[in-house]
Amino acid sequence: MSLTQAFLAIIRRDLLLAFRRRAEMANPLLFFVMVVTLFPLAVGAQPNLLQAMAPGVIWVSALLAALLSLDSLFRSDFDDGSLEQLLLSPHSLPVLVLGKIVAHWLVTGLPLLLVAPLLALFLGLPERAMPTLWLTLLLATPMLSLIGAIGVALTVGLRRGGMLLSLLVLPLYIPVLIFASSAVDRAASGLPVTAQINILLAMLLLALVLTPLPTAAALKMSVN
């Protein structure tokens, strides 16, 4: 089997496992929808306030939903022993890890990408900001999986690593949150967002290049 075939096989395997556990797969999406829809109940039905808060509410909710789903990235493989088989594979471990991250994004990030514009309309976000919202989600949600994979790899061997995972990952998510929500906010105000989009694109490319290697090294340390 070539490296490309192994990469695609990892993605296919993880997608099949995810669809067998549909309840777990739906949890992040349901959490995202619930958090966004609860905000109007908490702050009141004030259109101007909700419209001003919409970019931050959407992005904080997406970040927390992604964080909720991170622990499943390597946990089941660690529990059933297949993670050790992955480490013993003759193929490049960072590439196989990237395959698992891609599958994780397809299961968790892609549904958020599809549902977020509908929830943004619910909060009163102007239609002119919708393309920017969609683009920021497309660029930034993969970063949530890529960055989070390092934290998951470091804590996968711990029984109760959820709190430690949050402490490790949340500070790294802050730049993504700042630039993504700022881009949507500026688009809603009719201002240019080229700088924010370019920064997010550069961050995504850096994450694609830099995160698989430390994630693979952290998995080796956690398993050994």
TrEMBL record:
<protein>
    <recommendedName>
        <fullName>Heme exporter protein B</fullName>
    </recommendedName>
</protein>
<dbReference type="InterPro" id="IPR026031">
    <property type="entry name" value="Cyt_c_CcmB_bac"/>
</dbReference>
<keyword id="KW-0813">Transport</keyword>
<keyword id="KW-0472">Membrane</keyword>
<feature type="transmembrane region" description="Helical">
    <location>
        <begin position="52"/>
        <end position="74"/>
    </location>
</feature>
<dbReference type="InterPro" id="IPR003544">
    <property type="entry name" value="Cyt_c_biogenesis_CcmB"/>
</dbReference>
<comment type="similarity">
    <text>Belongs to the CcmB/CycW/HelB family.</text>
</comment>
<keyword id="KW-0997">Cell inner membrane</keyword>
<feature type="transmembrane region" description="Helical">
    <location>
        <begin position="196"/>
        <end position="219"/>
    </location>
</feature>
<feature type="transmembrane region" description="Helical">
    <location>
        <begin position="163"/>
        <end position="184"/>
    </location>
</feature>
<comment type="function">
    <text>Required for the export of heme to the periplasm for the biogenesis of c-type cytochromes.</text>
</comment>
<feature type="transmembrane region" description="Helical">
    <location>
        <begin position="134"/>
        <end position="156"/>
    </location>
</feature>
<keyword id="KW-0812">Transmembrane</keyword>
<feature type="transmembrane region" description="Helical">
    <location>
        <begin position="29"/>
        <end position="46"/>
    </location>
</feature>
<keyword id="KW-1133">Transmembrane helix</keyword>
<dbReference type="Pfam" id="PF03379">
    <property type="entry name" value="CcmB"/>
</dbReference>
<keyword id="KW-1003">Cell membrane</keyword>
<keyword id="KW-0201">Cytochrome c-type biogenesis</keyword>
<feature type="transmembrane region" description="Helical">
    <location>
        <begin position="95"/>
        <end position="122"/>
    </location>
</feature>
